[in-house]
């Protein structure tokens, strides 16, 4: 059974993950309204990914017979001044989540909760990828601020290739990562 302080922090993290999902939906809708469908699609996908991270954490708590608390979340920011501001917000959010994930792993280690520490390793790896991805996108939207279709073209060219986005090493998610 996970250490009680870890369970408390993981339940807090579930709230942060759901909040990140909501924020990414708000960003996606902003880009949809601005008729920037590739940026919108990128953030709709990010929203699903953050929701699935929360559900992975829920499943871990369920599997370990721990208390699960599904939280309310604050309203996301909905108004943005340009195409850069939402991506900067997303990068800042990913950096904050990285700190939170690292603190979770540290709490597990501090309490000798090795199973929970191991569970957090995938999220640590994931956060490195998330921060790198947002850093890259931020550089692109900054360069494209005066011509947003250039960011759209870059996303079409650079993000269209690749697999289905699933990671076979990812923890199981409650509800099967719907």
Protein described:
Helix 1 runs antiparallel to helix 3 (84-110). The radius of gyration is 17 Å and the shape is elongated. With 178 residues, the protein is mostly helical. It has one domain: Ferritin, CATH 1.20.1260.10. The protein has 5 helices and no strands.
Annotation keywords:
single chain; 70% helix; mainly alpha; elongated; 178 residues; Ferritin
Distance between the termini: 27 Å
Main beta sheet:
none
> Would you state the CATH class?
Mainly Alpha
Rg result: 17 Å
Structural class: mainly alpha
Number of domains: 1
CATH topology: Ferritin
Q: Find the count of extended strands (DSSP E, 2+ residues).
A: 0
Q: Classify the helix fraction into a percent range.
A: over 70%
SSE topology:
Layout lengths: L3 H30 L3 H27 L20 H27 L3 H30 L4 H11 L20
Helix pairs in contact: 1-2, 1-3, 2-5, 3-4, 4-5
Short description:
The protein has helices at 4-33, 37-63, 84-110, 114-143, 148-158.
